[in-house]
């Protein structure tokens, strides 16, 4: 027989599956328990790897469908470690496509090589370099998506087709060593694919929550990935076995 704690925690997980995030005050009211009890449940579930605690609540670790403001708070230490490792591969004088996403934003924040030429469809990434005269910065243009805070659509896609770069640095909604890199929307998939095809090399940055998962829209086949940067040791081995260069970071939050 399940304990009351197990039943509560299962209900919390059900709320996360349905809504992507939960709030302590709302859960306390729904479950007829104190907020301290809910916080203890969230702590245990976070330790078990089911969720990421946030101020006042928690979010599901499978965060591809969440708004940008929520995704940006998920596994920040892991993303920072991945970003630092990925940024170390970039050398002075190179040109980059930087995809829109919270992990790629972590890469952008830790780029130390100068000068660089950067094209991005992310206003958050572009804002990092507006006062840096050692960066030649371009935006793709296109239609503004307020939920994911990036530019998309035919204009963005056309712009990318006319440019070339040394690296495409891409985030991922899902990665799988057989299915490849996949995305939750066709528009996002098209932009990522074109960035990769317009670059000499493609680097995918994805933490363990994205590994061995599949989204509906294909971005790249497994063999089209040149470098994968992740904190998932098991996934690292799987990708190395198919010939992809993998950089493994320390596991964090």
TrEMBL record:
PROSITE patterns: HTH_DEOR_1 (PS00894), HTH_DEOR_2 (PS51000)
SMART domains (UniProt xref): DeoRC (SM01134), HTH_DEOR (SM00420)
Keywords of this entry: DNA-binding, Repressor, Transcription, Transcription regulation
Superkingdom, natural source: Bacteria
Pfam short name (any one): HTH_DeoR
GO MF entries: DNA-binding transcription factor activity; sequence-specific DNA binding
UniProt cross-references to InterPro entries, sorted A to Z: AsnC-type_HTH_dom (IPR000485), Carb_Metab_HTH_regulators (IPR050313), DeoR-like_C (IPR014036), DeoR_HTH (IPR001034), NagB/RpiA_transferase-like (IPR037171), Tscrpt_reg_HTH_DeoR_CS (IPR018356), WH-like_DNA-bd_sf (IPR036388), WH_DNA-bd_sf (IPR036390)
Domain HTH deoR-type stretches: 5-60
Keyword Repressor among record annotations: yes
Role noted for this protein: Repressor of the lactose catabolism operon. Galactose-6-phosphate is the inducer.
The protein's name in its UniProt record: Lactose phosphotransferase system repressor
UniProt organism field: Umezawaea tangerina
């Amino acid at each position: 027989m399940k304990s009351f704690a197990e039943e509560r925690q299962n209900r919390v997980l059900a709320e996360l599956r349905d809504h992507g995030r939960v709030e302590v005050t709302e859960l306390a009211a729904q479950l007829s328990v104190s907020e301290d009890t809910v916080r203890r449940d969230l702590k245990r579930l976070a330790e078990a790897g089911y969720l990421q605690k946030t101020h006042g609540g928690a979010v599901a670790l499978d965060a591809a469908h969440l708004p940008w403001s929520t995704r940006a708070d998920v596994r920040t230490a892991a993303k920072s470690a991945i970003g630092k490792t990925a940024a170390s591969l970039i050398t002075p004088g190179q040109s980059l496509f930087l995809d829109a996403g919270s992990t790629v934003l972590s890469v952008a924040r830790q780029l130390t090589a100068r000068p660089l030429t950067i094209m991005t469809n992310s206003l958050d990434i572009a804002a990092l370099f507006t006062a840096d005269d050692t960066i030649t910065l371009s935006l793709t243009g296109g239609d503004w998506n307020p939920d994911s805070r990036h530019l998309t659509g035919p204009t963005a896609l056309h712009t990318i087709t006319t440019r070339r770069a040394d690296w495409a640095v891409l985030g991922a909604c899902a990665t799988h060593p057989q299915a490849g890199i996949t995305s939750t929307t066709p528009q996002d998939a098209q932009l990522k694919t074109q960035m990769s095809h317009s670059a000499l090399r493609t680097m995918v940055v994805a933490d363990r929550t994205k590994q061995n998962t599949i989204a509906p829209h294909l971005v790249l086949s497994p063999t089209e990935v040149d470098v994968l940067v992740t904190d998932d040791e098991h996934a690292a081995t799987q990708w190395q076995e198919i010939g992809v260069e993998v950089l493994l970071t320390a596991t964090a939050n």
